[in-house]
Predict the structure.
Amino acid sequence: MTPEQDDLSRLRIEYSRREQRLAGSDLYSFSNPAYLFAVQQRQRAMLKALRAWGCAELEGRRILEVGCGSGRVLAEMAYFGALPQHLAGVDLLHRRLVEAHRNIPGGSFTAADGQNLPCPPHSFDLVLQFTAFSSVLDEQVKRNMAAEMLRVLKPGGVIIWYDFWLNPANRQTRGIRPGEIRALFPGCAVDLHKTTLAPPIARRIVPVSWGLAVFLEALQVLNTHYLALIRKVEG
Ligand SMILES: C[S@@+](CC[C@H](N)C(=O)[O-])C[C@H]1O[C@@H](n2cnc3c(N)ncnc32)[C@H](O)[C@@H]1O
């Protein structure tokens, strides 16, 4: 088995353990105020960044998410105006893709490794990765995934990256800092926003004061994630 295959097997085992651990928990439920806060703040940051880059209008855009899981992020894209038939997702885990089909009936979902995307070159306006790269420990797998994301991006298209740079609690994941994001996408302009108030802090503050949580997140010092817009530099 190559180190890359080894890492993918580890990932499959880790995700099934994680699903068992989280069964019945409201950690990732919209009824949990801290989770709702994190998602809404991320959406605001993403829409602001897309507007700044002149691509806020999602209707008519073809969108792919690498490591789409159950399709939550793609469902947000539909809510913001993308057409379901323009949404595609790939993931290693078949069970999650069944849920994605249920969440977005018109979308197209494929069980595939992000290192070999089953898509022709230049086929998407937006290519997303939301917390998939931090679950990959093998450096070569990450490089291969990033190269594939660039391959399937249309000229003038944009990659949206959302992932944490710090997560000391979980040794099955690895935070990714700005230097590494830039190195994964050579020849690209990378616009970074530090976002997401550290979840353990948000879980304490948000139920007491949503406004205080907004204030703390705006300070950025306690934020654990980067949202990045990544675009090939033409010529
Ligand atoms: C933390 S989950 C995030 C799911 C989704 N992006 C979201 O934010 O709801 C990370 C997902 O990435 C997927 N993933 C990790 N490495 C992958 C790879 N090489 N190819 C395809 N999917 C991968 C995992 O199977 C998992 O479903």
